[in-house]
Design brief:
238 residues; alpha/beta; Ribulose 1,5 Bisphosphate Carboxylase/Oxygenase; Rossmann fold; 2 domains; four-stranded antiparallel β-sheet; three-stranded parallel β-sheet; 9 strands; 33% helix
Length: 238
């Protein structure tokens, strides 16, 4: 079945040229094409020269977005003892121990990120089938398995996001709101690009960056000049 494109999106697509745009130019165009009736997010879709079916070509890491995400992130923490109190005081929305694990098993998913202390991970592991497909399973690499619960909560609230390449080697990340100034979106996009370069899988061969497109949630895809983004200095994106 052919998916029908709305008239609104067709008109917006006519405003996008089929060429790579300078990063700031692409982000200004993203803002112009965010015409939906709700506050749209800014998305980036990056195709990398990797095949994630090989363990040395997988990419999974975190990025700290300097200008934040613009989203209210609901945080759940599974811990015990004094760490439960620490999590509550640090601003976690849902906190518990075995009781919270039971609630999640029964279908309670009223959170966007889940943090767990290492001593709780043997019990949390049984939630793998529920949390894994939703991208909510805590992981040491993602900074969501830790005894420093307060710092982990603060990092998430400040704009830390975990991401991974899907099975086709594409990274999908929300990097702010379309309402952000284009300059702030550029700072976040640059931070993401640098994070990916720092975490380039050891098995990646040949051309690593294949394409990068940005868009508003309901807007058309806009190609970004990869080399211009990578050559940009951090100060130029600020």
């Amino acid at each position: 079945m052919v998916k029908k494109i709305s008239r609104r999106l067709q008109e917006l697509q006519n405003n996008v040229e089929q060429r790579p745009y300078e990063p700031i130019e692409a982000l200004k165009l993203l803002k112009e094409t965010a015409t939906a009736k709700f506050p749209e997010s800014a998305e980036v879709h990056i195709r990398l020269g990797i095949d994630p079916k090989y363990t040395d070509q997988q990419l999974r890491t975190t990025v700290a977005l300097p200008k934040g995400t613009g989203q209210t992130v609901r945080i759940a923490v599974i811990a015990r003892g004094e760490k439960v109190t620490e999590a509550s005081n640090a601003g976690a929305d849902v906190v518990g121990s075995e009781d919270l694990i039971e609630e999640i098993q029964k279908g309670m998913m009223d959170f966007d990120r889940l943090i767990a202390t290492p001593d709780m991970m043997p019990q949390v592991a049984k939630l793998g089938r529920l949390l894994g497909p939703r991208g909510l399973m805590p992981s040491p690499k993602g900074g969501t398995v830790t005894f420093d619960v307060e710092a982990a909560i603060q990092e998430v609230k400040a704009g830390k996001r975990e991401f991974r390449a899907d099975r086709t080697g594409i990274v999908h990340v929300l990097f702010g709101k379309a309402s952000f100034p284009a300059e702030d979106l550029l700072v976040n996009l640059k931070a993401l690009q640098e994070t990916i370069d720092r975490n380039r899988p050891s098995g990646a061969k040949g051309r690593f960056w294949r394409s990068i497109y940005v868009s508003a949630t309901m807007g058309p895809a806009i190609e970004v000049d990869i080399n211009a983004l990578r050559d940009m200095k951090v100060g130029e994106a600020a």
